[in-house]
Amino acid sequence: MLPIPFLLLLLSSILSPSSAADFCVADLTLPTTPVGFSCKNESAVTVSDFIFSGLGVTGNTNNIFKAAVTPAFSSQFPGLNGLGISAARLDFAIGGVVPLHTHPAASELLIVIHGTILAGFISSSNSVYYKTLNKGDAIVFPQGLLHFQVQIGGLPAVALASFSSPEPGLQIVSVALFANSLPSLLVEKVTFLDDAEVKKLKKVFGGTG
């Protein structure tokens, strides 16, 4: 038989209210922490914190990539904070592309809603996995790996993405290389591109140096 004090402790833990919070709605007025946003006071939480309507709105593809990403991360959708999930909508005009990029903090599941998209990723051993996806097809991009999406065919494309983090992070390779003040000579050294090409790309992406 179990000792009486242990039984009393077990019974007390079963009958007492749980100390775990049901949610941690992001307080966007406070700075972020290494584990996400601070929690909004529960008395200030409303149903609007758990609703996001942006995924039904077509993104503006009038840009160099001919594509748009509408994020539903905790900074746009406070109810996601601390839950380990988020989402985004991807819109592609004809010829649209989301170039090589990575999400340092999340894996991604992409589902094609309309049109045709060529999508793939590169493993850490430099193996390449890519395929043409049609409506209803899905692909997963493991956390931290470089991946891309390209619209193909005669129709614009739309996809929905889900992530395994409320703030997956994003770094686009071309923007990281050519939209900053890193000296052109140094960029040439680390990319093996010639001077003319580096300066052309810096001009395209707004970099200096």
From TrEMBL:
Positions annotated to bind oxalate: H103, E108
Pfam families given for it? Cupin_1
Per UniProt, Mn(2+) binds at H101, H103, E108, H147
Q: Reply yes or no: does the keyword NAD apply.
A: no
Q: Which pairs of positions does the record mark as disulfide bonds?
A: C24-C39
Domain of life from the UniProt record: Eukaryota
Signal peptide positions on this chain: 1-20
CDD domains under this entry?
A: cupin_OxOx
Q: Where in the cell is it found?
A: Secreted, Extracellular space, Apoplast
Q: Which UniProt keywords apply?
A: Apoplast, Disulfide bond, Manganese, Metal-binding, Secreted, Signal
Q: Domain (Cupin type-1): give its ranges.
A: 53-199
Q: Which Gene3D superfamilies match?
A: Jelly Rolls (2.60.120.10)
GO CC entries: apoplast
Its family remark reads: Belongs to the germin family.
Under what name is this protein listed?
Germin-like protein
